[in-house]
Amino acid sequence: MAILKVARLGHPVLREKCRDLTPEEIVSEPVRQLVADMRATMSEYAGVGLAAPQVHEPVRLALVEFEEGDDRYRVDADQALLVLFNARVDVLDAEPAGFWEGCLSVPGLRGFVERPSKIRVEYLDENAEPCELLAEGFLSTVCQHELDHLDGVLYVDKIADPERFAFVEEYERFHQPAPDDA
Ligand code: NI
User: Which pTM value belongs to this model?
Assistant: First the structure.
């Protein structure tokens, strides 16, 4: 496994419209290696998701994985590794849910973005088998954030209120909500 270089905001690969992979490509050794390297890269940089164009591969592949208690995003649930090929999103509930998002391609910053609260994702898994995922809450936001990357869209494009865009330090100092009293 290798830790891959992550493209940063301004690199044209982040604005490309990515292409689907064929079932033959999905099960091929180079793509299996890419998935393993992307997972290692996501882990190295403590991301909760990573899309292929972020590692300079303009194909429709994204990974999502996070653990409860993640100290960057205060996640309240576990999500085992999802490997999403050629994913398509249907909105099931357009009621917006807002989260402070970050991105490995926009390091050191956080921005508040609202997205549909409940979605269905249709995709091919690592064996090129069709799968369906229902996502709400944080998982819905992470999936939409990652799949936006495949269309050249970054979360910074979707920040409605410029006052809710901040460096991590200032986010923690002025914007982070107090932990819930359980
Ligand atoms: Ni991102």
Answer: 0.94
DSSP symbols for 1-24: --PPPPP-TT-GGGGSPPBPPPHH
Domain borders along the chain are 12-181
Q: 173: CA distance to ligand 1 center in Å?
A: 23
Task: Give me ligand 1 centre to Cα 153, in Å.
Answer: 9
Cβ contact 22:28 at 8 Å: no
3-state SS, residue 165: strand
30-72: pLDDT as tens digits: 999 999 999 999 999 999 999 999 999 999 999 999 988 776 7
182 CA to centre of ligand 1 in angstroms: 30
The answer to whether the beta carbons of residues 47 and 87 sit under 8 Å apart is no
* Catalytic machinery residues: 146
Q: What's the gap in Å between 51 CA and the centre of ligand 1? A: 7
> What residues pack around ion ligand 1 (CB closer than 5 A)?
103
Task: Return the CATH superfamily for domain 12-181.
Answer: Peptide deformylase (3.90.45.10)
**Class of residue 87 by CB neighbours under 10 A (exposed 0-12, middle 13-18, buried 19+):** buried
